[in-house]
Amino acid sequence: MNFMRTGVAVLVILVGLSLVGCCTSKKETEKVIVPTQSTNPTLGKQLEDLEEAYKKGAITKQEYETAKKKLIEQGTPPSK
Questions:
Q1: Residue 14 clears pLDDT 70, i.e. is over it
Q2: Which of 24, 31, 44, 53 is the least crowded, having the fewest Cβ atoms under 10 Å away?
């Protein structure tokens, strides 16, 4: 008798689990992909960030001038 109750309980659990899997809608499992913008900042933004770092004391004037020069050189297309 106890064996039969255990068997029925296992059967009820298995049926319940199988119904949960088949009843979920596709919308619940779909992932939404949102396009992202380019992560490369513009030269202007890089210069602004650099200046802000200098003003906050994160870098020295010499470091600021060196980095600024390097950014400008990298952002300028080579002359033909």
A1: no
A2: 31
